[in-house]
Queue: 4 jobs
Job 1
Amino acid sequence: MSENKNIPAAVEAVLFAVGGAVSYADLKDALQIEDKELKDVLQEMQTRYDAEDRGIRMIELDGKYQLCTKNDYYDELVRLVNAPKKHVLTDVLLETLSIVAYKQPVTRQEIEKIRGVSCSHAVNRLVEYNLVQEVGRLDAPGHPILFGTTDDFLRSFGISSMDDLPVITPDRLEDFRRQAEEEAGVINVET
């Protein structure tokens, strides 16, 4: 990058023009600058966008960067483009999405084994909402589709990578099991 260019402005131009998330490596290649300089610029830009009274922000999604609208201005955007409100995730969709998030890559059959019921509708709806996507095929008879989460999943739940998901400890898992049994009306008699 020539020395007379404003690096933050160049980053902003690239992210704006692409529209979607751009990997760190692609940004570095496009700008032709050193790692430390790019890391410093990205951190400074994120801090500035968060601190200033602006309608956009820069987010990091699993090592990729993107400019997006601040959530505070969602209603104004909806009125402008007459788009529907955000999708409502039912308990069934949240349960299915949780399984995909924690077990990915995962097949429909594996999800159904965990849930104990058919999940075709839930998986199709999550794909439609762009929270889940096909990430490959299992090397097994029939080559079933493997599903994983998307950048929209990260963005929707306000996390920058899958490492930010809460860890489910054995104690919490036992609490979840107990709650599920209570909701299902199963009585667990301890001896």
Note: Strands lie at 22-23, 56-61, 64-69, 106-107, 132-137, 145-149.
Job 2
Amino acid sequence: MQPLYEGKAKRLYTTQDQDVLRIVYKDEATAFNGEKKAEFAGKGELNNRLTSHFFEVLAAAGIPTHFIERTSEREQLVRRVTIIPLEVVVRNVVAGSLSKRLGIEEGTVLETPIVEFYYKDDSLGDPLVTPAHINLLKIATTEELSLLEQEAHRVNDVLRPYFDNKGITLVDFKLEYGKTPAGEVLLADEISPDTCRLWDKETGEHLDKDVFRRNIGSLIDTYQTLFNRLGGNGQ
């Protein structure tokens, strides 16, 4: 098993099966494209458990993902895909950069969810891109872009009521997609409090990485609280 890639929150390894990769979740947390960094013991285990569960929830709803199985506290097996260099962001409530860009008060509920695309390039700061930009960069075809938007809405249609039933508002979240060697587009990467904004419906308490970004609480305590709210086992 050889190292293949190391990102901000995960390491990726090959396996004896060329179509299967092993992900190891790290304890590091980053914000602002890596400008802010810290390490939190147990974070990798929590994100592995939570991501595995969310992918299982989505698979049960008929949404294709790269996830195969969780194999240990920090590890999971996934199908090999080539990541499409786009972050697909779904917004249900105004927060973060959307509030800053448009001057709309954070917490404003959107009448219709918005899907945005960001170019995955740390050196450029992962800029917001339009379909015309995506076509210029040859990142995805018009048909693929339409599919990504459609699939992102499908994920939202599953996860939004899931969290609502737990007393949590799914404010916004980031998705990444990849293509198999056969060309199938699959939901990939992770879904965790690293990649979602989650607010307690009654108190507005942040249950996500914003506590680290904004210095408003303990990241590991927050993630553990979310874990417990989902039944203590991601369910």
Note: The mean pLDDT is 95.
Job 3
Amino acid sequence: MISTVINEQLGIEYPIFQGGMAWVADASLAAGVSNAGGLGLIAAMNSNGEQLRAEIRKCKELTDKPFGVNIMLMSPFADEVADVVTEEGIKVVTTGAGNPGKYMDKWIGAGIKVIPVVPSTALAKRMEKLGAFAVIAEGGESGGHVGDLTTMALVPQVVDAVSIPVIAAGGIADGRQVAASFMLGAVGVQVGTRFLVAKECTIAQEYKDKILKAKDIDTVVTGKRLGHPVRCIKSSYTREYTKMEYDSSNYSDEELEAKGAGVLRLAAREGDVKNGCVLAGQVASMVTKEEPARDIILDLFTKAEEVLGGACKWVK
């Protein structure tokens, strides 16, 4: 069985995190993944402090296993949720969309292991200096907000740049990709897209069906013009958005921002995948069935162990 500093230090069975996906990663999914042996994460997204507290307490009712919270630092309620995670005794916080420096001393003092998501070696080194327990090196193959570097290029460079543990993310949906992550020097993985179709995931069935029907070239990156590129499944919405994005003479940045407001919730919670935005990574086409989180994790690590066990079988 694959065991590393990640699962050993966090008290989980497998070194795997579930991605902190907005409007997706609620108490049900987080508890499901934690009960299955991974680290479930609740997405704080733009929740205020009391909304997040309610979700944390719901998760505590569903599992007695460790789980964490993902904090989007651009949220207007970031200060509130930063306090809530300490008050509620959360032991792992992952961060994105900003620099967690102003909260690090408080979190570390409360015994929280802080694990920022990073798209570059420069940010990884900065997070190490701030006292991060580990970093999640996320390549541009992932769904949602993406950076420029691919997982294959980013992970080994981050591994070489820092001395803290590195978790690989982006483009991981089966055991071969888990094995590749460990071969690149990571000691854990974060998976998002495959958990979209976990039985414990409460998103609309229409959203899950878009993932299950996706082909290999069915994702597109939008939002580059605004400086916040996002990977999602192609749809009538993305075609209309892309047309606006590349027609700056007729559409202002403000109009483009308005076009993107609320569209993830529309797809994930209301099931309107035509007018909403279905976030997913490039591995969506590799996700073929809806199944319990436990089966997903067992499949990933059973196949990874088989690959790693025979990794040099072609060398004479």
Note: Residues 54 and 305 are 38 Å apart (CA to CA).
Job 4
Amino acid sequence: MSTVAVTDATFDAEVKNSDVPVVVDFWAEWCGPCKQIGPALEELAAEYGDKIKIAKVDVDSNPNSAAAMGVRGIPALFIFKDGQVVSNMAGAKPKAALQSWIEDSI
């Protein structure tokens, strides 16, 4: 499975109503650290397959979802489980740190 692009319109359906845990990455095209973690998130999406979903929300195109989550800086990552936030982190991290954070949260 690859990452899923989520919009303000699809946020509830893709994230809050998901049957599996969802990692949400709030990012923007102009954000250097966001681009740094992008490939790691793609790899993790492929490795986890159907066990989790990794969603990407472009904050420039979808400001309402970011505002609703209180995102002030990017990249901002949240893990949702059963429609609720169970963990969050800000900033770019290496793939191993992202994987460890996901494992500890789901």
Note: The mean pLDDT is 96.
